[in-house]
């Protein structure tokens, strides 16, 4: 079973950038589709982006298209979310998730990393 640990969150000013990382333990990382979700205070968790085991990516939120990029490095067992031109409305806890089917149906979650964008 894969375990996920996110990092890279923090406080950034509007217009700034952050890169989130999600490190996976286990030897079968390349078998998993991976995704990023986020949850803002008082709101439901929402799907941000996902990537297949062979690097096909998809973005659910129109609000992040052109600003966020999901990528993965199977040699490092890591998936990334590069976030540029951040806006205060991007403030949320960001969660990494893994699943073995596509479209992604998460079966494994990380603990989350806080991203706060100040105006």
Walk me through this protein's architecture:
- By secondary structure, this protein is mainly β.
- Helices cover 0% and strands 50% of the residues.
- The protein is built from no helices and eleven strands.
- It has strands at residues 4-7, 10-13, 18-24, 33-39, 46-51, 57-59, 68-73, 78-83, 92-99, 108-109, 113-118.
- Strands 2, 4, 5, 6, 9, 10 and 11 form a seven-stranded mixed sheet that branches. Strands 1-3-8-7 form a four-stranded antiparallel sheet, with no helix packed on it.
- A hairpin with a 6-residue loop joins strand 4 (33-39) and strand 5.
- It is globular, with a radius of gyration of 13 Å.
Helix/strand order, N-terminal first: EEEEEEEEEEE
Specify Rg, calculated over alpha carbons. 13 Å
What count of helical segments does DSSP give?
A: 0
Unreliable runs, pLDDT <50, ≥5 residues?
A: none
- Overall pLDDT, averaged? 94
Structural class, from helix and strand content? mainly beta
Q: Percent helix among the residues?
A: under 10%
Shape: globular
Largest sheet: 7 strands, mixed
Number of strands: 11
Topology:
Layout: E1 4-7, E2 10-13, E3 18-24, E4 33-39, E5 46-51, E6 57-59, E7 68-73, E8 78-83, E9 92-99, E10 108-109, E11 113-118
Write a concise keyword list for the protein shown above.
119 residues; mainly beta; seven-stranded mixed sheet; four-stranded antiparallel sheet; 0% helix; globular
